[in-house]
């Protein structure tokens, strides 16, 4: 769903064979794979789900079983940004945090800590890219994500959905000691083959975990199905236009 965002960022920053990229929260490694396809040397770091990191390794590492897609200069690190440090190697020329913030309570604070730890690993003045959800009125998925907050009550704990704010990315950058230096918006529609696929896809984001904990999976499935009804087309597919935002900041 976020491929247009990755492409726009890499095109704007001219990512290519001379780029040493550190990807924070790399997940399953799709953004890294796209950068590697442009010739970049990529390092991904994440503390997330082991199965996602396993997929990232399969996609990128020489023993991953994907033949020509594997790159000898790709690394996947399970841990904190500081664990990606390579003594004797040049500093990173680009740091990315392309998992969008602005929809989970506490996500901006978490990202700020990661960026502060990653900044010393980058060259002076290197670009650091942050991504976030666009204005709620420009994101059809917003109305669906509200289901997560409503069902998670009265928990209202970290992990529940919240609407994106206009200056989310700038505030995170400032707290991490970074200097904002440009931004952009990218259309990233969410499309699914049918309603069941849409429900599974949305649940896989983790945005509904608190709702499931507060109620049960069948209740969340039911409410999601109802919320998706306005976006179901005549052929059964589900289509939700969204806009995502990215900010380019610079290290000190």
From TrEMBL:
What is the top-level taxon of the source organism?
Bacteria
Known SUPFAM superfamilies for this protein?
Answer: S-adenosyl-L-methionine-dependent methyltransferases
**Record InterPro entries:** SAM-dependent_MTases_sf
* Protein name per its UniProtKB record: Methyltransferase type 11
Q: What is the lineage of its organism?
A: Bacteria, Bacillati, Actinomycetota, Actinomycetes, Kitasatosporales
């Amino acid at each position: 769903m976020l491929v247009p965002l990755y492409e726009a960022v890499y095109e704007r920053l001219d990512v290519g064979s001379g780029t040493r990229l550190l990807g924070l929260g790399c997940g399953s490694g799709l953004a890294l794979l796209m950068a590697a396809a442009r010739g970049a040397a990529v390092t991904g770091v994440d503390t997330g789900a082991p199965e996602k990191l396993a997929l990232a390794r399969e996609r990128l590492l020489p023993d991953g079983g994907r033949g020509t897609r594997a790159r000898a200069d790709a690394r996947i690190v399970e841990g904190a940004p500081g664990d990606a440090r390579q003594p004797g190697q040049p500093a990173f020329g680009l740091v990315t945090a392309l998992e969008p913030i602005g929809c989970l309570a506490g996500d901006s604070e978490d990202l700020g800590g990661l960026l502060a730890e990653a900044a010393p690993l980058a060259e002076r003045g290197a670009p650091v890219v942050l991504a976030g959800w666009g204005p709620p009125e420009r994101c059809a998925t917003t109305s669906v994500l509200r289901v997560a907050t409503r069902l998670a009550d009265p928990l209202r704990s970290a992990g529940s959905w919240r609407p994106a704010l206009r200056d989310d990315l700038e505030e995170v950058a400032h707290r991490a000691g970074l200097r904002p230096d440009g931004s952009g918006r990218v259309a990233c529609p969410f499309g699914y083959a049918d309603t069941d696929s849409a429900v599974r896809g949305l649940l896989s984001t983790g945005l509904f975990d608190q709702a499931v904990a507060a109620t049960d999976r069948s209740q969340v499935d039911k409410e999601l199905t109802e919320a998706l009804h306005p976006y179901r087309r005549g052929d059964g597919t589900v289509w939700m236009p969204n806009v995502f935002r990215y900010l380019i900041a610079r290290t000190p």
